[in-house]
Amino acid sequence: MVDNLSLSDRRAEAVANVLTDHYGIPPENLVTQGYGESYLKVRTERAERANRRVTVRRITPLLSTNGQP
User: Which long-range contacts does 52-57 make (Cβ < 8 Å, 24+ apart)?
Assistant: First the structure.
């Protein structure tokens, strides 16, 4: 379980690095979080490709007043 969490953290960090290095998104605007086996898309005891994923959320509207940027 610890190995999966570490791998999940590294996967999220790798995506953040690509967003910063190739798309110019400032690193201070990104937060990464790995979940390991906590939130599986497909419940299984075996390795499942669908569980190796990253979700990117745009939260800017949540931070602005009245939904206006």
Answer: 52/11, 54/11, 54/12, 54/15, 56/15, 56/19
